Amino acid sequence: MDLKLGYNCICWFSHAQPCKMILCPKCNGDLGAGTVRGATIEEIEAEKSVIEKDAKGRMEKTIETVRSNFNSIRTGRASPAMLGKIEVDYYGSPVGLKSLAQISSPDGTSLLLSPYDKSSLKSIEKAIVASDLGMDSK
Asked: From CA 18, how far away is CA 123, in angstroms rounded?
């Protein structure tokens, strides 16, 4: 028999699912030796820290996504972050534009792309025109 930690109890049982109630519903209260006990403070704190760690990780990912989305908002000024999500078909595989070119903004109305590989210029131009940003190359 295995020792499984549930939310409200620790019980010994033969099936693979952890018990989430005072009595295990799969066993109908018959837990082999009939032992059900409340969780100790240490077990509750351990479970609490696992839940907090998971919640914190998911919250940090959400905040990073929101920051990324805010960076790509068009505000009337040209920003290199506007091109951050563009994927370029480079020799048959999608590659992020940041990996293929240096992106800068010499003034507030234009963006300057300097490709590392000059042969990728047509692919970069095609990806920018095909994107939903409404930009064209000049």
From this structure: 53
End-to-end CA distance of the chain: 72
What are 96's strand-pairing partners? 87
Residue 115 β-bridge partners: 101
Q: Which domains does the chain have, with CATH numbers?
A: 1-39 (no CATH), 80-130 (3.30.1360.40)
Tokens of 116: 């590392």
Q: State the pairing for strand pair 101-107/36-38.
A: unpaired
- Is 80:91 a contact under the CB 8 Å cutoff? no
Residue-wise pLDDT tens digits, 56-95:
999 999 999 998 788 767 667 777 878 878 899 888 889 9
In whole angstroms, what is the distance from residue 28 CA to residue 24 CA?
Answer: 6
